[in-house]
Amino acid sequence: MEKQPRLLASQLLLKNSLFEVSLNRVLLTWKEIATKKKRVSGGIHHPFKVGFCFPKFLRRDKGESGTSHGVSVSEILAVRELDVDSETKDDGRWQKMPQKSTEAYPYAFTVSYVERAWQHRWRCSDVTFHCLEGALCQQWVQTIREQLTALTSRPKHLLVYINPYGGKQQGERIYEQKVAPLFTLASISTHVIVTEHANHARDHLRTEAELKKYDGVVCVGGDGMFSEMVHGLVSRTQRDNGVDQNSPEEKLVPCTLRIGIIPAGSTDCICYATVGINDPVTSALHIIVGDAQPMDVCSVHHNNTFLRYSVSLLGYGFYGDVLADSERKRWMGPARYDFSGFKTFLTHHYYEGTVSFLPATDILGTPRDKTRCRAGYHQPLFLLPEYKGGWRVIRGKFLAINAASMSCACPRSPKGLSPAAHLADGTTDLILVRKCSRFNFLRHLLRHTSKYDQFDMNFVEVHRVRRFRFTPRYCQSDSELDLRENGKRLFSQICRDHPACSCSPAYSSWNCDGEILPHAAIEVGCVTTPYNLLCKYTVHSESI
Ligand SMILES: Nc1ncnc2c1ncn2[C@@H]1O[C@H](COP(=O)(O)OP(=O)(O)OP(=O)(O)O)[C@@H](O)[C@H]1O
């Protein structure tokens, strides 16, 4: 790394030991000075620990002259002067100043910074330096503040929507206790709206919200709330720019506001897939330091009519059926997903239809990037591939058709549905799981939680695509249907209404980021360039 000129360097006291403290535009470092000779008289030495340190951002080395620490300026949250004359109450925490150091070094300032803990978890840590002179203390505070002000990617004004009924209905408490104090510490002003009904946030963003006043919008809730934000913001941007959302061919105009998620839902898959952990404090800290991650948005259409946007999973068959069944069992709480998953697995319905897709041939990488050997290519058993220009057409019987625009990792499946899916390359990974035995389907599902490749099975194939269409068999041409098929369709509906029946119904439904779509036949377009400015304040922590 290029050596940065020093902005400030002083000998300051920290927990009764003298440290050489230094600041440049990139790093704040403090290194203990030979402890035996220079320890301040009367002080009791406590070995100072900054907690868990990671090589890139926060280092702690033990050199000849003592321990050294460093924190990236981009991860400093705030700096403030301390009143050392009395016990100070700052940021809700009492700090007792050691008597001897208070006498010798009567001025002090505290730096709050991001501490990287375990498994992608971030925490807010404080370090307090004591100075001999008030002017020096002020100079440190001012210089660090100037560096923070120069960080232009940090938000200053945020619009926050809280879903009080998401997950365990803890959204308001999580925000007030864990997130709001951090925003205050980082001098971020907020306008908070507690939603009063479903789609409140979406409609407010689409119509009333004065978006120019904010640097970003934050939702406190689950994937459903995040989806509301995406719909509100993307729709508003398209309308303001005269884009016809109903046309699958239209390019979406990127939106300049970023979206942040504070996880407070039941599954919080989008947060997990992008941050690596569902933790409100970690997400709040990513928001504060201005982390941004572009991501793809797919628009879903039926007969040239816009249905919804999708940013994570579009699933027909298995995942559609699990969602449809679990919606009927909301009274069971989060346990409904396990129940419906198990039930859907046992019913083992497959669906006939045609999948057409436009492969993404002009990009680097494939959905199976992590698979070292590609020798396991299998000829589809039940499918008839055709080529129409750039489009591929596949007919068959499918247990599941999934389009993953991100890894879709969640705590239960840490590598996700498509571990190598990219967040912002204008593509989605289309996973086709053809009809197979229950045993094989179970093996496929279990591989999502193990080190084995879930795509390396002869009834599974995966394609990285720019667009795709699905037409269920009985929709293809109504005139083709004979009386027997009409009877079958009617019968299927009866079967659907009676879950005990094990006949295969003709249609499943699409699970679009956790919402049910009413149509089986859809056309999906993934924006051809990354939706650059629709970013989350998060980093993709999967090492793809
Ligand atoms: N005040 C409200 N009253 C009722 N429903 C609401 C309200 N605010 C938002 N909603 C709706 O609640 C639905 C579920 O919310 P959310 O996604 O936050 O939690 P969840 O479903 O428990 O979590 P996840 O989606 O991660 O499984 C959303 O689709 C949203 O539209």
TrEMBL record:
<dbReference type="InterPro" id="IPR016064">
    <property type="entry name" value="NAD/diacylglycerol_kinase_sf"/>
</dbReference>
<dbReference type="InterPro" id="IPR045363">
    <property type="entry name" value="CERK_C"/>
</dbReference>
<dbReference type="Pfam" id="PF25382">
    <property type="entry name" value="PH_CERK"/>
</dbReference>
<feature type="domain" description="DAGKc">
    <location>
        <begin position="153"/>
        <end position="304"/>
    </location>
</feature>
<dbReference type="InterPro" id="IPR001206">
    <property type="entry name" value="Diacylglycerol_kinase_cat_dom"/>
</dbReference>
<dbReference type="GO" id="GO:0006672">
    <property type="term" value="P:ceramide metabolic process"/>
</dbReference>
<dbReference type="InterPro" id="IPR017438">
    <property type="entry name" value="ATP-NAD_kinase_N"/>
</dbReference>
<protein>
    <recommendedName>
        <fullName>DAGKc domain-containing protein</fullName>
    </recommendedName>
</protein>
<dbReference type="Pfam" id="PF00781">
    <property type="entry name" value="DAGK_cat"/>
</dbReference>
<dbReference type="InterPro" id="IPR057465">
    <property type="entry name" value="CERK_PH"/>
</dbReference>
<dbReference type="GO" id="GO:0016020">
    <property type="term" value="C:membrane"/>
</dbReference>
<dbReference type="Pfam" id="PF19280">
    <property type="entry name" value="CERK_C"/>
</dbReference>
<dbReference type="GO" id="GO:0001729">
    <property type="term" value="F:ceramide kinase activity"/>
</dbReference>
<dbReference type="InterPro" id="IPR050187">
    <property type="entry name" value="Lipid_Phosphate_FormReg"/>
</dbReference>
